Amino acid sequence: FLLLLLRLRLRSPLRQEQREDHHAGGGEGGFLPARSPRPSMEGDVVSSIGVLIPGLPNDVAACILASLPVPHHARLRTICRAWRALLSVPPPALAALRLRRPRHLLCLFPQDPSLVPPYLFDPSTLAWLPLPTIPCSPHAYGLSNFVPVAVGAHLYVLGGSHFDARAYPADRPVPSAAVHRLDLCGAALAWDRLPDMIWPRGSFACAAVHDEGSGDQIFVAGGGSRHLMFPSDGSRVNSVERYDVGSEEWKVEAAMPGERAGCVGWVCRGREGEEEFWVMGGYGEYRTLGGVFPVDEYYRDGVVMGLRSKKWRRLGEMWHEGERRKLGPVVVVDGENGDAPSVFMLDRNDIFRYEMQSNRWLKESTLRRKFLGVESRGFVAMDGELHVLTSTMPPSNQVDFRRLPKKKATIEIQVYDPRKKKWRFLTITAPFCSTVDFNVAALCTIRF
């Protein structure tokens, strides 16, 4: 409350006039450097809606409501029409009203999203929000290896591998081309079915990019039909397609040089200023042990496509034989002030940074709490920091196993700041009564 009063004091007309005088005299004779004025929402949203909180000015009430945890916005929209109008504006406009900077949210899909609801987590307030499940199909079940991606305030779930009762044989997984979208700023949280992808696929590379000329785009590349129940089987594809968010259409792009599944992808600016779609790792061909057991041949290289030239180029091998078996989980940290993004990988108990000039993974740091070889872990980037997640279950002395456990699972997070080279720890209580297998779960981040 005191911080809010101080912030309002700084925003008073007298302080504003003083700051404008200083800015006008900025440069050689001014006390402060000239800055561009902060975009005002008063004339766009705040003044066009009704009274938010009786007894308070609308700009003050809007600042308070916009600073509340994002997972609670869905329930707050049902209070009145004015609150729904304010909390339904686009995230960039709502972030301009907050007392704090825009933040990342974590979206966690523990299992099949048509059976188990996904959850939205705000790390700044430790608040959870259960999201609705995806509409269940009467024929398909057991969805896995799908890819979630966020574009603005919209959450997309693309593809995957599932079982189809209409297929033959029925015990073999088939790839999915389904696309679902959830509007997190809508009045009612509900999934919408969008046009299917041209090629069904699961376990593929995916990246979202914003282009001022063509709008928001989603690129997908590679993938196949592999399912978690059959970890050494399935097809591979090399097709690439692009989804136009504005027109809601899928368009074919130039295919990759070779088939690749289980890969990761991201978009960044290349050396010549062109936006490029990077695809790394994954598996393609396989060999057999004793002529019976198939074993994947993991790639040690990557491929890059220019978004303007539509041409692919190959990268060399990123590590030597015997250094590591395959590429681990990869996350991208956006650069500041126009800098290039940083790419990090989690390999067992070490974090590596990708050096684009030398095409090598350099060791960045080691986890403070090391894991066993069989312990699953998640890896995401939020607010410029790297988060390593593990799920544990507190010990219970429950005798009657027919009852559900009362204790909730806990998630331990090791947070690493690449700029300060420092670690910190965080333990949170999960909203579910079972541990999360991060080898099965899917993670993505949403910026609000």
TrEMBL record:
GN (gene name): OR23
Domain F-box: 54-88
Name of this chain's protein: F-box/kelch-repeat protein OR23
Stretches for region Disordered: 16-39
A Pfam family: F-box
Compositionally skewed regions (Basic and acidic residues) per UniProt: 16-25
